[in-house]
């Protein structure tokens, strides 16, 4: 039987990998490793988030346009506080949706990729 146990990585396409890494660092506090570069152009970088990786790759490597990929969801402890911080940093957010098991809401990064923040409301 096949069993998926965790997310290994999620990769987003970017026209400018270094600039998009700075955006995520400044807005969400995600610390990226130094980008892999060729001829002075950042092609790939990744950040460890929990047990997985969030990666940014140049559009030439992924052969897809920014904003055309599925979303990633980052877990946060307090989505209302997280959204307030994003708004203070100039990021437009969608409304927070409340479900029986979570609260979630999204914003769009500078490359057009959708990013979701998720707060579990289920007690383990």
From TrEMBL:
PROSITE patterns on file: VOC (PS51819)
GO molecular function (one): dioxygenase activity
Record keywords, A-Z: Dioxygenase, Oxidoreductase
SUPFAM superfamilies per record: Glyoxalase/Bleomycin resistance protein/Dihydroxybiphenyl dioxygenase (SSF54593)
Domain VOC span(s) in chain numbering: 6-120
InterPro entries: Glyas_Bleomycin-R_OHBP_Dase (IPR029068), Glyas_Fos-R_dOase_dom (IPR004360), VOC_core (IPR037523)
Protein name: Putative Glyoxalase/bleomycin resistance protein/dioxygenase
Record organism: mine drainage metagenome
Lineage of the species this protein comes from: unclassified sequences, metagenomes, ecological metagenomes
């Amino acid at each position: 039987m096949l069993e998926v146990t965790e997310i290994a990585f999620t990769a987003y396409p970017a026209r400018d990998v270094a600039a998009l890494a700075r955006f995520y660092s400044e807005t969400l506090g995600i610390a990226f490793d130094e980008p892999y570069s060729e001829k002075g152009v950042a092609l790939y970088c990744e950040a460890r988030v929990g047990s997985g990786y969030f990666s940014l790759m140049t559009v030439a490597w992924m052969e897809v346009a920014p904003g055309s990929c599925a979303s990633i969801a980052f877990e946060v402890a307090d989505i209302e506080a997280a959204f307030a911080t994003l708004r203070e940093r100039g990021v437009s957010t969608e409304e927070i949706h409340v479900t029986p098991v979570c609260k979630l809401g999204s914003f769009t990064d500078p490359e057009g990729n959708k990013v979701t923040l998720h707060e579990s409301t289920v007690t383990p």
